[in-house]
Amino acid sequence: MIEERGSLPGSSGSSGSSESDGDRIAPPPLAPGELLAPGYRVVGFLRRGRDLDVYDLWSEERTCRCVGKAVRPDRMARNNARSRLLREGKLLVKLTHPHIVRAYEVQSAPVPLVVLETLPGETLAHLIDRRQKRLSAEEVAHLGLHLCSAIGYLHRNTVLHLDLKPSNIIAAHGMAKVLDLSLARPPGPHRGGIGATGYMPPEQAQGGHLDTSSDVWGIGAVLYEAATREPACDVGDETSTTEARKIVCQPRPVRRARRLPAPLAAAIDVCLRADPVERPSIPELAMMLETTVREAMAQAASAEPAKSEHMGSPGA
Ligand SMILES: Nc1ncnc2c1ncn2[C@@H]1O[C@H](COP(=O)(O)OP(=O)(O)OP(=O)(O)O)[C@@H](O)[C@H]1O
Ligand SMILES: [Mg+2]
Fold first, then answer.
1. Stretch 129-158: mean pLDDT, rounded?
2. Which of 14, 60, 126, 135 is a plausible cystine mate for 122, CB 3.0–4.6 Å?
3. Is 124 in the pocket of ligand 1 (CB under 6 A)?
4. How far is the CA of 1 from the centre of ligand 1 (A)?
5. Does residue 307 contact residue 138 with C-beta atoms inside 8 Å?
6. Would 13-117 and 122-298 be classified into the same CATH topology?
7. Domain edges within the chain
8. Which ligand is nearest to the CA of 167?
């Protein structure tokens, strides 16, 4: 969903970066009706991140709404910001998957811009905050299966996501979609602390070799929070310093935070093992989550035969 957010300059960037713009004053975002780029008119400003502005746009060519991620006017000189956004856009336009946001196009001038389909629904972060009731075990397992499907596809394209967190997932009508491939890269060595504080596996927080198991940890962290409404890692309020980003967290077993069916709790806990070799592969994780879904369906069928066709879903 398109969420109106507070837009304090530089207030939200949680991903690490080595460039600095000092105290430069950020110009305000564009107003509704202004052209962001040829053919793309601003419907509304959505949010300002560390390097990027996100807009609700009108595409004149397609005559439809879309979302634009553009480099902030005061960050144009940052090669990192430009190249990261263009890399994300080029990757997204090549990918076609029902659980990954679709990009319509990438422009490098006049402003580096990635144009995305507008996803209905709300971010998982928002959903977790808003809902009084926790997601059911079955809903959490469905969410996990969608993430396994999306991330498994990314991995088969030799790309790791490396920024899995509730605000990078949108859920609607039982469909979860993964966004924000700004940190995506091939497996390999990685300098520490590049990612979202509290959502990085130890090898990403501290620096080391990253591979598919690093995203398995990310899926585990998302499922932990979806199930319990608490982050897997409590890093306190200070999340943007280099030291905070390098904190290695060891989540406690999920069943200490909520009683869950044993197969689901085991699936979440094993994803969050500190040692990457102890984590399951994506297909192994998917099998564990399917067990939860099957058991929930069997239970529903025996308890309430009349309602057994009503399946819980992540965005419901
Ligand atoms: N295609 C989309 N449809 C609807 N909303 C979107 C879409 N893309 C992004 N958003 C909204 O904008 C927010 C920021 O998008 P995104 O995470 O891609 O940007 P970012 O600047 O890389 O974020 P951050 O660095 O804070 O993770 C999302 O959390 C979501 O609320
Ligand atoms: Mg994001």
1. 95
2. 126
3. no
4. 9
5. no
6. no
7. 13-117, 122-298
8. 1
61 alpha carbon – ligand 1 mean position (Å): 23
Task: Dump pLDDT digits (tens) for 174-211.
Answer: 999 999 999 999 999 999 988 999 999 999 999 999 99
pLDDT band for 16, please (50, 70, 90 cuts). Answer: very low
- The answer to whether the CB of 58 falls within 8 A of the CB of 41 is yes
pLDDT in tens, 27-44: 999 999 999 999 999 999
Q: Is 7 in the pocket of ligand 1 (CB under 6 A)?
A: no
CATH 1.10.510.10 fits 122-298, yes or no: yes
Q: Which CATH superfamily is domain 13-117 in?
A: Phosphorylase Kinase; domain 1 (3.30.200.20)
Q: What is the pLDDT of residue 301?
A: 84
Q: From the CA of 196, give the closest atom in ligand 1.
A: 27
Per-residue pLDDT tens over the stretch 69-82: 999 999 998 889 99
Residue 177 Cα, ligand 2 centroid: separation in angstroms? 12
Strand partners, 52: 71
Cα–Cα distance measured from residue 187 to residue 161, given in angstroms and rounded to the nearest whole number: 10
171 CB near ligand 1 (under 6 Å): no
Q: Percent of the chain at pLDDT above 70?
A: 87
Reported confidence tier of residue 290, pLDDT bands at 50, 70, 90: very high
| Ligand 1 atom 31, closest CA | 3
Determine the atom of ligand 1 nearest the C-alpha atom of 122.
31
Separation in Å, CA 123 to CA 54, 71, 129, 314:
14, 22, 10, 11
| Residue owning the nearest CA to atom 5 of ligand 1 | 2
Rounded CA-CA distance 106/113 in Å is 6
